[in-house]
Every structure is written in structure tokens, then in C-alpha cells.
Amino acid sequence: MKTNRIVITGMGLTAPNGGNPSEFRANILSGIVRFQIIELRYIGKVIAGVCSFNPSKYQNKKEVRAGTRAGSIGIYCAQEALVDSMIEVNESNKSRIGTYIGITEHGNVETENEIANIANYNYDVRFWNHYHNPRTVANNPAGEITVNTGITGPHYCIGAACAAGNMGIIQGAQQLLLGEVDIAIAGGVSESIHTFGIFAGFKSQNALAWHEDANKASRPFDIGRNGIVVSEGGAAFILERLSDAKKRNARIYAEIAGWANNSDGTSYVLPNPERQAECMALAIKNSGISPEDISLINTHATATKAGDIQECEAVRKVFSAAKKHPFVNNTKGFIGHAMGAAGALELAANIPSFSDGIIHPCHNIDKLDPECELPGLLAGEKAIRSPSEIKFILNNSFGMLGINSSLIVKKFDE
Fold this sequence. Notes:
This protein is an alpha/beta fold. 32% of the residues lie in helices and 22% in strands. The strands form three sheets. The protein has a ten-stranded mixed β-sheet with strand order 5-4-6-8-1-9-15-14-10-11, sandwiched between helices. Strands 2-3-7 form a three-stranded mixed β-sheet. The two termini are 14 Å apart. The relative contact order is 0.18.
């Protein structure tokens, strides 16, 4: 990382409260939340984060019908990121662009819909959609991006549960360092709100959020939190080697400083704070810095009782001896849990802090859970201006089956 520096030169996203990075950031700083109550088969009313982007901006009607919601989200985010970075896909570069998209799950939406459809025909599989297989293969969102853009470089999806957004970015950086590609489209997507199975699973675990005011349903760290608000969305970043970015005078948002990922090895669903702490500590070590250098931690906390507490325990373990404590925030109070897109969207929410010095707070904390108290936790409703330069941001993303990822980005300097 000392000789081959990786930088972010483009961003594209869609979230429940914003369809581009500037709108997304402005709404978070203004405390704007746009959750909706939707109806799901077999379940009824649930609270969800729904995106309002226009798929037809980059796809025709036939492409939207043949593809998937996750594919449309991925295409929109990737195309927006390419425009933002001022990169045009052409004959000279299309084979040197890699596409690496993190996903939590894929194919459940299409399978549930097809089974519901053939139920109307006495389960006659002649009525099964002939696009089902390309819709449900695990590389679908990344593959749809390449079909749409004409990119011929490598593509695949990284299945990493709710750590996937971070892992897509990490994979892109690794492939650039290996020289496999010259440009990486990297991030994560999720279409999870369109499958009843996700909601039913969280409901069976007593981990599905509900509040009479939908916009107050996602409450990480609040004593009254009662579960997850499932959201769709996506974020894609353009990653390049610094030398290449400089050659074309690219605008640089941030530099990838380092990362780490590991496994709990203990439970299907319950996180392990010791392993989470090890992941954060390793990411800091791999970045060549110390805990005191971290300016901001974006927590993964999803608003589940145990998960929030255990992540706070892990943060204390890593930073308790630090002479200077970082600020700590959380983004899910604004957008819910976007599953495979979560880490990427949350990174996009915080990267602007490098340039404007403003840090967004947590949201919907009416009364802080005493077990979630941390030095530097922004539990109020107003964004703050950091009294010192924001140099390093630690982005945590953890997922089921004990997959942990910590990604560190730094303010770019020559």
C-alpha cells in the first residue's frame, strides 16, 4: 500500500433517502428519513427502506423486465459512478475494468415470485419464467452491470452477508494491487425488501423493527430499539491506482488506507465481540497507523439488542487505551439496514467529512442504552463540525455466520 496507492475517484448510489451522493449527504445532515410501510405476501404490513431511482435512466423497458431489481440498482449506481469519475467505457479500456459487487443474498426475490406465479396455474412449470436462471445466478448484479455497460473485464459478486459492501470495495482494491485491472467498479447492492423470506426470518428472531412512526423505527443504540428496518439500495465506487488517477487529473475523494476481514467461528447469528475487535485492530495495523489516528468510526450497529452492545464492547476493547478517542456515529438510523449495500452506502455517507469537516450523528436515539455508551458517540440529533482535521475513517460491517470486515479510508494528500 505504500508504493501502490488506491484511490476513490467516483461515487454513485441510491438509498431510501437519496438518489445521488449530494442529495444523500444533505438529507442525512438534515435528519431526513423516508421509510415506508409496505405490504408483503404472507406477512402484511412491514416497515422498509424503498429507493425511488429511475431504472429507465440507463435501461430500456425490455432490459428492466428481463433483469432483476438488484441488477437495476447495480446498473444505476455503476453508471452514475462512471459519470461522476468522468470515465467513458470504450474499446481501449473495457477489458481492463473489473466489476466487484457485494451481495447478502440473491435469487430469493425471483424464486418467491415465480412460485407465487405458477401457483395460479396449478404449479405448472411451463409458466416458469425463462429468464429465471440468469436472474438468480450469484453473479447476477455484477453481470448485469457488464452487459449494460459493455465492460469485458472480470466480474463477480462477493457473497459476504452484511459485510458485503465493504468486501466489494476490498476486492476491487486487491485486484488493482495485483494488476488484474486498471479500474474497479466496487461496492454493494441489495433488493432484500422484495422478498418476504428476509422479513419472516427476522420476525421469527424477534429482530424486525416496528414503530407507529415508520421514520423512527430504526433506532441503533436506543434503549427502546426493537430490531432491523430492512432496506434496498446500492453504492458503487470507482477505484484506481493513484498513478493512473493522476495521469488523467481525476478528482480524488479519498484513499483506501487498509482493511481486514475475519470470521467469528462461533455462531450462525450472534456476533462475537472479541473477533470484531481483532478485525478492527488488524485493519488499523494493516493501515500502518494507531488507534489514536482514527478520526471517526462508522458502526455497523443494526438496532438489535445484542448486536449493538457487542459491537460497542469490541470498540471499547480496541480504543480504551487510546489517548485520543475517535468520534463514533451510525448511519442505519437514517436509511435502515441495506444488507449487502450497507457498508458501501455508509462509507458514502461519511466520505464527505474529509472535505467539509462535518460528522453526521446517530439518529433516533431518544434515550441511550447505558450498555452502548462510548466516548465520542454522537447521540444527539445535530451534525457537528470536527475541531480537528478528519484524517482516517474506520467503516465497520459485520454479518451472519460471523463474517467481519473493517475498511479504513483516509483523507487524500499528495
